[in-house]
Design a protein that fits this description.
Layout (H helix, E strand, L loop, with lengths): L3 H6 L3 H6 L2 H7 L4 E7 L7 H8 L2 H4 L2 E7 L3 H10 L4 E4 L1 H8 L7 E8 L5 E4 L15 E3 L6 H12 L9 E3 L7 H6 L5 E4 L3 H7 L4 E5 H5 L5 E6 H6 L1 H20 L2 H8 L8 H14 L10 H13 L11 H4 L3 H6 L1
Parallel strand pairs: 1-2, 1-3, 6-7, 6-8
Antiparallel strand pairs: 3-10, 4-10, 5-8, 5-9
């Protein structure tokens, strides 16, 4: 697709000469700045990176300022404190805030991933993996109360492993230090998001055993959210953001793994390009990325089931779908 400046350069400047002043002003309208905080840096969020590198945000009139929280609690804190306009995190953060005493509430408005994107990695490759192999072993988990840990524990329970008594979970390692902890010898098993899992495989430092998301099934895992006030005061900006994400979701659904790897590469300068391609191919095969920003009630209901099973949400404190999700932006985009 030709960029507007290329079209003008190729001889249709006459159109601009007869265009109304209002049209010309629209073309030079300043971009709207959006302070965006992602929970971690991961290929799991490829559609966002695609929207950035392919220029979809700029086409939508947005200038995105990116920050990485390295934890759902930190990302949500940025949102509630006003240092971020839009955040990407697990729905559990919105649920926790809904049940808290905070007078500031957040709502999900756009879905990104259809289920967990973490892979179970082992130090050796068995002929056939069985979940029972985790019993009595040290497993590198994730932050308590986070979606990666909750989904891992759910996968264990579904396969006859009690996460409270059958394994030793290490959940106190900071997100940026997890790969280093594994490389230093901590744990016999671990969960890693992409592209870390594929990079460890390429380096011969870990072996893929199972997909947590494929084991648990579909339940919206990460989503874009904003405070009620921001959604009310900046509806057009939120709609433009959702439109750009949906455009990127459609591109990602039809692109090859190699194309996706190249599109996200600027966000992962230290990662082997082959690891990016392998990771993209794995996520495509597992259908981890949503092809639409729409979130269905059943997906949130299942997500809350997992929180209840993980003992981080009382059954009588489940939050109603309409109190968690604003459906109008995604519905309009679709």
């Amino acid at each position: 697709m030709l960029h507007r400046r290329d079209i003008l350069r190729n001889g249709v400047s006459a159109i601009a000469a007869i265009a109304s002043p209002a049209v010309l002003r629209a073309q030079t309208k300043p971009l709207t700045k959006v302070r965006y905080n992602e929970v971690v840096r991961s290929l799991l969020y490829a559609p966002y990176y695609v929207a950035s590198t392919n220029g979809y945000f700029k086409d939508a009139g947005l200038d995105i300022e990116l920050a990485t929280g390295n934890g759902g609690d930190k990302t949500m804190a940025a949102l509630l404190s006003g240092s971020a306009d839009i955040a990407l995190a697990g729905p559990e953060t919105t649920i926790y805030v809904a049940n808290s005493d905070s007078t500031t509430k957040a709502r999900i408005f756009c879905g990104l991933t259809a289920t967990d994107g973490f892979m179970l990695i082992g130090r050796t490759k068995p002929e056939k993996f069985e979940w029972s192999m985790l019993k009595g072993q040290d497993v590198l988990g994730f932050r308590p109360g986070s979606t990666p840990l909750l989904f891992l524990e759910e996968a264990m329970r579904m396969n006859g492993v009690n996460p409270d008594s059958d394994v030793k979970l290490s959940n106190n390692i900071a997100v940026p230090a997890r790969v280093g902890a594994w490389l230093s010898g901590q744990g016999q098993y671990a969960i890693f998001i992409e592209p870390d899992a594929s990079q460890l495989e390429l380096d011969g430092k870990g072996f893929f055993l199972a997909s947590i998301g494929a084991t648990v099934g579909f339940a919206d895992y990460t989503a874009f959210m904003a405070t009620d006030k921001y959604l009310a005061d900046n509806a057009s900006t939120v709609q433009s953001f959702t439109d750009a994400i949906y455009r990127a979701q459609k591109w990602t659904a039809s692109a090859s793994a190699e194309e996706i790897g190249k599109a996200v590469a600027p966000f992962f300068p230290a990662v082997n390009p082959q690891a990016l391609t392998n990771a993209a191919a794995r996520y495509q095969k597992l259908k981890i990325w949503k092809s639409s920003p729409v979130i269905e009630p059943a997906a949130i209901s299942k997500f809350e089931d997992i929180l209840v099973n993980g003992h981080v949400l009382d059954a009588n404190k489940r939050v109603k779908f309409e109190d968690l999700v604003r459906t109008d932006f995604a519905s309009k985009a679709k």
